[in-house]
Amino acid sequence: MATESATVVTKTQFAGYPLRRGKVRDVYDLGDEILLVATDRISAYDVVLPTPIPSKGVLLTQISRFWFGFFDADVPHHLIEVIDDRAPRGLEAHLAELRGRTMRCKKTKVVPIECVVRGYLAGSGWSDYRKTGGVCGVKLPSGLRQCEQLPQPIFTPATKEESGHDENISFEQACELVGKPCMTLLRDRSIDLYNRAAEYAKSKGIIIADTKFEWGALGGEYLLIDEVLTPDSSRFWPVDAYEPGRDQDSFDKQYVRNYLTTLVEVGKWNKTPPGPELPPEVVANTAAKYREAVERLIGKTLIY
User: In order of start, what are the domains of the chain with their CATH numbers?
Assistant: First the structure.
């Protein structure tokens, strides 16, 4: 099992390799390739919390690896390998920290659009629907309930922001940013991947309510990149507890959000840094949900 020492690869370890540190992942530039390190950091309200979730990065990497393999026959992607028993040349001394949580990937030119596909009416989509009768400019039937399944999945792109929230935009706006041929192709691919994944996941007891895909250009084609269909990039709900008209149980950081909401309500936190420490029971429950998602989708979790 990954230990807390593996939650963050320190800034100085890989001298000579440029580092881009995200909220929960670290990206090392190896030239024609990158190392995508999924740490155990967790964020909420765009604030990185001081308490890690043990093995979170390992569990999410297992899910991404599964989906890359699931689509491998007909969807080009950036994954070369997950670091298991062999580190890249020159990084052998860091195998223990990289193992299980690091993807070695082809480097692409990232398309600056989050390709969001929604199959259910939740989150910001539900808020938008109540105000406008649609989601991101996509008109929907009247009378839909919170978390209700949509007649068919919809594509609602968003801008990629380095800090703060991504901004929902219309399909037409996305076309203006990256070109209509590119956006049309990625829209159709994204909806197709969502439909295939949702069908498989439902057979395993998980509803994928929505998700976001990222794509990158390399050698004249678009590759599926980043993490894929994890509880951090998607809403996963248990089939056996699903009931439209209310918030759903989930396989992600629900326990973290619930705990932080109680702090906000009593004025102990204002959603700005620094974030509060998480109690042991919140950490344990959150880790258990991530692990359950892996076990339902894949059948087992790998222990490192």
Answer: 1-7+14-107 (3.30.200.20), 110-241 (3.30.470.20)
